[in-house]
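Justification of computing resources. Each target in the renewal requires a structure prediction run like the one illustrated here; the chain below, 623 residues long, is used simply to show the kind of job we budget for.
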Amino acid sequence: MMHASKYQTVWAAIALILLATVQSVSAFYIPGFTAVSYKFGQQVQLDVNKIFSKNAQLPYAYSELDFVCQPKGPVKRTWLNLGEILRGDRFVSSDFQLQMKQDIGCQQLCTKALSGAQASNAKQLIEEEYSVEWIVDNLPGATAKTEISEGGRKMYVAGFPLGRVKDGKTYIHNHFTLVFLYEKNEKKPDEQYIVGFEVYPESYDGTDCPVDVDHPMQEIGESDVIVRYTYAVTWQETEEIKWTHRWDMYMTTSDPQIHWFAIINSFIILIFITSMVAVIIMRTLNRDISMYNEEDIEGAEEDSTGWKLVHGDVFRAPKHANLLAPVIGSGIQCLVMMTMSLALSSFGVLNPSYRGGTMSNALFFYAFGGLFSGYASTRLYIMLQGSSWRRNALVTATLLPAAMFSLMFILNCFVWAKHSSSAIPFGTFFALFAIYLFIALPLVFIGSSVASRQKPIEHPVRIHQIPRQIPEQIWYLSPNVSILTGGMMPFAVVFVELFFIFKGIWSNQYTYFIVGFLAIVFLILVATAAEISIVVVYLQLQAEDYRWYWRAFLVSAASGIYIFIYSVFYYFSRLEVTGFVPALVYFVYSLLMCGIYSLCVGSIGFFATFYFLRKIYSAIKVD
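Resulting structure tokens:
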């Protein structure tokens, strides 16, 4: 036993050191957190990244497109974190010659002789409304627009169109006017900060740069064509935009009043459910417990009805108890990931300047959550008379990752075939597997080992040897009806906010960083999930049905079904996705997100109900 304990200690030390190292690097060396100032004439690097479209959820690396300019010199690729790789980013240096505060009237970038196949590929991408993302000083090149509802204030939409369709013809953008906004460095007057990056693309057919708005445009079709790429650069000083607020213009696309409406709507639902719980606890339960304790137990058995009669069976292990504990443990692990990610976002650590940071940190938070997952799962497993905590720990550690890896690998095969940059490279797959194998898996076993040494949870009442017969249930208390009906409440809490969440995810923009509203809705969701599970289980016990374990979990988890149905509605009503693979990407990711959400809120509902039942049954006197 001492040898095993030393072995587990070594694993714990290695896992925690790795986790602490990675998290320290990601927390304190965040691109965009440190301002970089440039002197007059200093070289400014422009990196090309990818093209993306909300109508085709498959990004492509810009540097791999065969109809655009390729770097003439050595290609410099930027190191990417896991989040950037998973979202399809691919940073490559370009041949744009940019010097701080030096305007360029017109400069040729390259001339491309496109074959019919290359031109046809460009035409298809333009018709699918693909946009281009370039990066300068960690800022994405943006299309500047004026928001009427914001009093004429300028706002940015990340990226700019690859081309456009006009009068049934397709034109490619081959001239780019790059406008850079900068503010002076107060501490170093001879240096400046870049606070804005605007791109104004144009299409022209000629040997010189476009000189007016009436120039002929460069049409592209399915035949051979020569495309000349040019650019111009303008630097503008601004006092309105500060470096610390340079991302604000990317995030002014939603009306705060709508989010306040969502919070008020969620709060009203919470008050309604809280009132029901208050009535149950303050009136019904207090009266029942007082009456029950004033009588002897035999008289109480004859006169009592409802939840009191099933005290000898309510903590009886349910069917498939060996699966329940790993499911709850997986939910706790996802809840740790979600809570910590939301907390860091609320404090501004995870923000748009930390590209890919939310996903990268979420992966490590999930691995770290294995410690809590193993502990909770094993404590529940032992309470339910489980015989092998090691087997339970293994199932807990592999249940969700196995399902996710399988789905992602199958999906990746289709994405690979499309040569999309969102295809996960084999090296990244190995990195993800290493995180699981060397951090998540050991932490689950460490948590399980600690839980196995704890004193088992004792039930407040004794379990009878012979199960009590369950009377026939009213139709609305049947499992399917009560679970689906109860699941509507948590869904109603997040319904209004779902639109903005889906828009932020599937529009490939930087639009959903209003995490303050999301944090409030999340807290209301936690309370709603806990209370609706308590209400539904209490009504079930009143009908003398003591099989509550799975129902306490499924009532709240069922709201994930409604969210998936909403994702189907959003797909057909808001998106114009074309093709089988983009649709497959959308629905697989939606299914994974809904599954993780269901595990989280289901676990909240389960533990709230478990605590509630222990409290009320410990208040009655039973011999």
